[in-house]
Each structure stands twice: as C-alpha cells, then as structure tokens.
C-alpha cells in the first residue's frame, strides 16, 4: 500500500496527519478477501435458447506451468473462490506472462461468451470522466478486488487436475464488466462526478483543498466497507497532486499521456503485419486528442489495415509512423475544460480532411483542450472550399456538443463560410442538415486568414 503525499513540484513530502488518519481507520479494507460475499448486484449468465454447451480441449502445459497451475488452484480453493465441479460446461485454461515475470491464469471463455445473451450496461467514456477533475489539486486512486456469484456451474474450466468452477465472478466472461460497473454506479451514485469517478475497479477521488479531500476520502472508504469490498493496497495512492489514471497523468496543470505509454510508443518497432499495425494504431489512437490532425497523419497506416490494400511499406508509411511517434513524444499538456470560461473553436478544411482545436484562454495563453480531425469521404472531397469549411464547423460542434451546446463560444475559421451559406439561393440536403445543427449553437464567428495553423503553431511554441 502506498501512502503518498506529493508537493506541487511533485516531490514526496510527509503526509498530513489528517490524511494518514483517515486511511488508518480502515485497516480491514486492505485485508486479503476470502470466501463469498453476498451483494445487492448479482451476475447472472443467461444462455441464448437452443445453444449447444461448449466444452474445449485441455491445453498442453510445460512442467513449470503445471507447477504454477497446482499452486494457483490450491490457493483459489483455500480462498473459497473456486470449487470442484461436475458441470457439463468446461472451458480450457492457459497462462499469460505478467510484466513481473509471473504467470496469470486465464480461462478461455470464447465458446461460452459466444452463446451468452449480451447485456447493455454501458461503460463510461474515459474522456468525460477525466473532464470532471478540472480545478482540483488533490487526488487518490483506489484499486478494488471483486467478487460476485451466480450460475457458477457455467463458469467451469478444465485442467490437468480436474474440473473446477468459480464461486465468484471471473473477469474473463462477457457482461461481467457491465455488472461490475453497474454495482459501482449504485454504490457511489450520490457522489459520482462531484468528487469521485469510477471506471470498473479503478476509483479516483478528486478535491480542491486538503480539508475537502479528507472528507471525500473518508466517505469513499466508508462506502467500500459498508458494501464489503476489499482494496488492492499495492495499487492505491493517497494524497497526490499528480496521479496516473486510465493511462493519463492528471494534475492541476492539466492532462498528459502516461510517460510509460509514451515510451512504449517511442520504442515501438516498425510493424511487420496488419495485426502489428492495428496494435500500434490502437495505442496511438487512444491518445489522438493530443495530436493535431491525427486522422490525416495516420491515413497511410490505417490504409494498410484495409482488406483491399496489399501490405507495402512505402515512404509515406514510414513518414506517418515517425510523425506519430514524434507527435506523442513531444506532446503538450492539455487544459482540463473549465465550464466557467468561454471556449474557442478553431476549424479548417485541409486537403483531405478536416481539423479543429477546442481551446480556452488561460492568462495570456490560449491553451488547447482537445484536438479533433477526420478524413473526408470522396463525396465530400468533391465539394467546394466553402462547403468543406462548413462541414468542418458542423463536425467540430457536434464532436464537442457536450461542451458547447447551451453556452456562448467563439468559432474561428479561415473563410467567411457562415456568411456564404446565408447567400445561397439553393442548398443541398446535406448543407441544410449541417446548417440546422449549426444554428442550434450560440457563438460569435471570427474570420481570420490562416487562423487554424497560426493557433496550432502558437500552441507548439508554448510547449
């Protein structure tokens, strides 16, 4: 368990006694969980009617893996999390190496997942969660250990040493994440977005001042005790002025990518296949909000993943690969959106795509909140410059609807597009739809030649 208090400069200092005192009130939360806990939220496994019961073969294992299997089965049985089974179900198991060199036992539930009725419990959007911490200086991160039970016989898995079934909920099953998120939303319902956000088993507490922080931390720990959850102390941090959460470093300064993830991107070898390319694009795409014109920069690489495109590593691919790595290793710190300050949206229709920046003034500086870009279809490429510029405004406003609708803001663009659209005697169906949406917003248009690139260049110069 980490009990950390960090100064504004990021240096560890002595934790204030009021914070240490709150954590010390809950030693039971850090105990190792055992057995089954009755909970309000119960995970049920509903099978599609008429489905055949899946039963996979036992995967072969090395002597070292068999030793690990025996040890993990013994530990899980002793904790009361699994038990011997006589179920007709039986999924295979395998081991996946962890970073520390140890092995994690995984159940291959692909056959079972294919016949489970899918639920519709949504997971929260990560970008919307991160927006909630604006203006806060003190953070805590709590990692949970879980356990739900029902329909245990369907979770059975085959091993060299017999058939077992889970008594608690394994995360390898589909719908499990939705059940867990639903439980978290119910537990923290009255406090979500006020001083706590939850993404599955990762809880973030955020506060503006230390006195608030102490109260917030105590409330969260009290609720976890009330609902009989246990905490993974080795992954918890308390009383931080900057903290890693969901792949981002959060501080009063703003938001930036996790340095470890950035290092992974920097050192990523050139992809040799579609699968490797998708992995690279998955990693960089997670941080696309930090990259100007991500979609057009990545276009040669995304084209390689198409079924109708042969794998050929061209100079354009190499340039795109290097550009993305450079952009993310020289990223800027994004400003967390302040609802009390006006937004400035700067748009442009570039050769093959549209680009936009959402920004806010902070003292003398205009700081980016987020970048957005999108490739244009062949139909839109055939349109006039004014139509493309109008499309850029339309996409930017709809993309940032949650920030902009119902509040006044400024739109900056290269062309007098909005004035042009009001002079057209005949408008196409698409233009009418875009205009109908645009006119729902309250903004002041500003026409400044070359403004998009000028704004972006200014952001780069400030970093």
Structural write-up:
With 463 residues, this protein is an alpha+beta fold. Among the domains are: 71 residues, Alpha-Beta Plaits, CATH 3.30.70.270; 119 residues, Ribonuclease H-like superfamily/Ribonuclease H (Nucleotidyltransferase, domain 5). Helix content is 35%, strand content 22%. It has 17 helices and 20 strands. Strands 6, 9, 10, 11 and 12 form a 5-stranded antiparallel beta sheet that branches. A 5-stranded mixed beta sheet has the order 18-17-16-19-20, with helices on both faces. A hairpin with a 2-residue loop joins β13 and β14. α1 runs parallel beside α6, α7 packs antiparallel against α11 and α13 packs across α16. The longest helix has 17 residues. The radius of gyration is 26 Å and the shape is globular.
């Amino acid at each position: 368990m980490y009990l950390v208090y960090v100064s504004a400069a990021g240096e560890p200092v002595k934790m204030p006694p009021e914070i240490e005192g709150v954590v010390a009130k809950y030693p039971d939360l850090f105990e190792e969980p055992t057995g089954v806990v009755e909970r309000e939220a119960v995970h049920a496994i509903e099978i599609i009617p008429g489905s055949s019961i899946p039963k996979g073969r036992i995967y072969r294992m090395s002597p070292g893996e068999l030793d690990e299997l025996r040890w993990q089965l013994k530990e899980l049985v002793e904790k009361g999390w699994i038990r011997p089974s006589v179920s007709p179900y039986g999924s295979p198991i395998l081991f996946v190496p962890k970073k520390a060199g140890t092995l994690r036992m995984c159940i291959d539930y692909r056959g079972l997942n294919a016949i489970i009725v899918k639920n519709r419990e949504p997971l929260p959007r990560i970008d919307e969660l991160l927006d909630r911490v604006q203006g806060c200086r003190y953070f805590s991160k709590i990692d949970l250990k879980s356990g739900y039970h029902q329909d245990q016989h369907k979770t059975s898995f085959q091993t060299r040493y017999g058939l077992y079934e889970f008594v608690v909920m394994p995360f390898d099953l589909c719908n499990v994440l939705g059940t867990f998120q639903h439980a978290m939303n119910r537990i923290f319902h009255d406090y979500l977005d006020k001083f706590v956000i939850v993404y599955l088993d990762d809880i973030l507490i955020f506060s503006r001042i230390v006195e608030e922080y102490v109260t917030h931390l105590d409330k969260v720990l009290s609720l976890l005790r009330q609902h009989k959850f246990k905490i993974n102390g080795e992954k918890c941090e308390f009383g931080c002025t900057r903290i890693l959460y969901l792949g981002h470093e959060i501080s009063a300064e703003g938001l930036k990518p996790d340095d470890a993830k950035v290092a992974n991107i920097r050192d990523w070898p050139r992809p040799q296949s579609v699968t490797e390319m998708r992995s690279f694009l998955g990693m960089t795409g997670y941080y696309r909000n930090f990259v100007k014109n991500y979609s057009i920069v990545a276009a040669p690489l995304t084209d390689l993943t198409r079924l109708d495109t042969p794998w050929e590593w061209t100079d354009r691919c190499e340039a795109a690969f290097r550009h993305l790595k450079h952009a993310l290793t020289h990223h800027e710190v994004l400003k967390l959106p302040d609802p009390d300050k006006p937004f400035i949206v700067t748009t442009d229709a570039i050769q093959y795509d549209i680009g936009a920046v959402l920004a806010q003034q902070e003292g003398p500086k205009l700081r980016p909140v987020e970048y957005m870009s999108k490739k244009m279809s062949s139909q839109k490429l055939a349109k006039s410059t004014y139509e493309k510029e109008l499309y850029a405004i339309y996409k930017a406003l709809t993309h940032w609807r949650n920030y902009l609708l119902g509040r006044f803001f400024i739109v900056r663009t290269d062309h007098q597009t909005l004035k042009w659209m009001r002079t057209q005697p005949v408008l196409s169906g698409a233009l009418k739809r875009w205009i109908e949406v645009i006119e729902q917003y309250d903004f002041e248009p500003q026409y400044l030649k070359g403004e998009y690139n000028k704004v972006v260049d200014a952001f780069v110069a400030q970093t």
